[in-house]
Amino acid sequence: MIHRLRLSTRLPKVAGSLFFALALSAVWAQRQANIEGREATVVENSKLELQVLNRGGAFASITLKDDPQHQNPLWNPAAIAREHKIPARFGDSIGHFVCVDGFGPSSKEEQAAGLNGHGEAHRQPWERVSATNADGVQQITWRANLPLVQETFTRRVELVEGEQVVYVDSTLESQTAFDRPANWAEHATIGYPFLKPEVTVVDASVGRCQTRPHQNIPRNRTLLGGQEFTYPIAPLQAGGTRNLRSVPSKPDSMDHTGCAVDPTRRLEFVTAINTESRLMLGYLYRREDYPWLQEWLNYPANLALTRGLEFGTQPYDVSRRQTVEMGTLFGVPTFKWLPAKSKLSTRFLMFLTRVPAGFTKVDDVRQENGQLIIEDRQSKQSVMLKASRPL
Q: How many CA atoms lie within 13 A of 329 on its CB side?
């Protein structure tokens, strides 16, 4: 995409120079890309490149600038379909997309009114309201109007030069004059080829967990439904247990789990490591914002593998009505209140890095003194990343 700038020749020299510098900065900050036929805005520094879809705001790709393979750990359903010669399943879902206001299917009444599942934000056009690149910090802010739920969603993405961290600030604002239940999930999703059987491992700071309850057990469910368990060891319908950290050697299942995040922590984490490429994607987020982690374990036999690392306000992707009727699980609320004419705000960071040989498990992620410290206590190794913006 080519951006043309028209500068007035009547501007004073100093003002004209300043305007020109600011204009060039804005153009650079809004470099455009195309991913699977969709326009995306590139947010980047010398370490990372993040591609954000202009419609729906999904984080479609994140790569290291010095990676010759340009490995993107995020789910790309169109690429998976080409690889495995199966029908493409793209829709509005790709990579890490936001489900707000709504996480899961809508009721029949909501559907009749035009409200589809997973909320409106990931289907709406996102307007760029500001873009700056100054003093080594690139910031882009988007806004999406959600007309059916009468809300406005705003998201700011920030990269600091020299860091392998993306800072994400979001606000959901109600336009209505009454308090309402709100549902919000960050549908972070990894996929093949980053996600491989017995190669990719997932770790998270969680407390009490439950396998998803089912009234009529689908054919491809392998976990025993509605059972509490201690992550990552979950009970199987056939007896015994499975370690959920990795994909089974012979995948052919689709399961869900919901975990309350660790109540002893303020900042929670979820990470995924491909132990062959030694590439790690991770998130650090505030427990007060996202008290639940749902994992969607989609492991078909054709290796079109997908795994959701979905941190949000509820344990499962169910309707708004169901979250309110549930109320709490393990004593943790399953929805948020969005007060009349008010806002909910959240903040999290995502990071991408290589790990040293033998680094195969994450026991802790914390932010101290402008750094992320990521520990594998078994190998007695740590990865340290610059992270100058606090959570």
A: 29
